[in-house]
Amino acid sequence: MGVIRLGYVHLRVTDLDSSTEHYRNTLGMDAVAEEDGRLYLKSWDEHDHHSVVLEEGGVGLVKLGYKVATPEDLDEFEHRATVFGARVQRMSKGDNVGVGDGLRITLPSEHTLELYNDVEYLGNATGSWNPDPWPREGLRGIGVPRLDHTLITTADPILLERFFSEVLGFRAAERLVGGPDNDDLVGSWMFCGEQPHDIAFVKGEQGKLHHFAYHVDDWTSLLRAGDIFSMRDVPIDFGPARHGITRGETLYFFDPAGNRNEIFAGGYRTGPDFRTITWTMDKAAQGINYTHRELDPDFLNVVT
Ligand code: M3P
Ligand code: FE
After folding, report:
1. Which residues pair with 6 in a beta bridge?
2. Whether the predicted pLDDT of 1 surpasses 90
3. 174 labelled catalytic
4. Is residue 47 among the annotated active site residues?
5. Which of 83, 93, 106, 282 could form a disulfide with 87 if both were Cys (CB 3.0 to 4.6 A apart)?
6. Contact 61, 107 (CB under 8 A)
């Protein structure tokens, strides 16, 4: 029962060709379908039909998809989201290539969130019979194995945290608080499984994307990703560095449209008995960039 993971990020990009080059050849994702001007891509260790969709025209998010454990979850989440006062519609099989019926919810932050259980299974690149540890035919560019999380912005983090908690059963791993009494919520990092976060949000403009992240194995992979970005002139935001929040290792960069991506490694394990960690604004720079303890204001201001 419940939400399993981030399934897909559907993005707008200014130029489909240059972004296709970035997501296919620099990150190493595979194109699995192209329909109505949308390109559907999948990372090598993902099993479901796709995890990134590129659509030409503008920047930022079209929508996020999270996979739920059972079809019955959709009925329960529809009920709870309606009681919460969110706008909920049913989405139909085929609205997204490879994805079955589901729910389309407008979050209090004005982002569109799709929930689905039925999705075409393609399998990963190494199969499920005596698999190799990685594809023996090799990987392109970084060869990202899978998506990890998204970070979005909202005018009302308390309301969005309530939504993810009360409607979708997420829990906060870490909270960033400010104000004289430390009771103003600036950001929340929430999980549905055992990762430190599956979704996070910070206070900001409604409906915007701060970044979405891919998981890689370790610090060495992160450094190698940095080498590939340098070879290919990919703009770097910051990193490689350590996050205080989530304890992950990070490298932020931009796709050709200016959408921020992250490569993320490490992080601790959570679970239903995990006790929320709190960061205060006077330590926010350390929380986000533990290594350098300073933040470029553009890191907080640039969203798409
Ligand atoms: C992460 C993370 C911001 C913090 C970002 C932190 C935008 O990306 O994965 O923990 O303030
Ligand atoms: Fe992140």
Report:
1. 66
2. no
3. no
4. no
5. 106
6. no
Tell me how far the alpha carbon of residue 151 lies from the centroid of ligand 1, in angstroms. 7
**Which residues of the chain does CATH 3.10.180.10 include?**
3-116, 146-301
The superfamily CATH assigns to domain 146-301 is 2,3-Dihydroxybiphenyl 1,2-Dioxygenase, domain 1 (3.10.180.10)
* 164 token code pair: 């993810």
According to CATH, the superfamily of the domain at 3-116 is: 2,3-Dihydroxybiphenyl 1,2-Dioxygenase, domain 1 (3.10.180.10)
Q: Tell me what pLDDT residue 19 has.
A: 98
pLDDT in tens, 229-274: 999 999 999 999 999 999 999 999 999 999 999 999 999 999 999 9
* Other CB atoms within 10 Å distance of the CB of residue 18: 12
Cα separations in angstroms, 118 against 62, 91, 93, 99, 147: 20, 12, 9, 6, 19
Q: Is the CB of 264 under 6 A from ligand 1?
A: yes
pTM higher than 0.85, yes or no? yes
Minimum CA distance residue for ligand 1 atom 8: 151
Q: How far is the CA of 163 from the centre of ligand 1 (A)?
A: 20
Find residue 60's DSSP bridge partners.
12
Q: Does 252 qualify as catalytic in the annotation?
A: yes
Q: How deeply is 231 buried, as exposed, middle or buried, from its count of CB atoms within 10 A (0-12, 13-18, 19+)? A: exposed
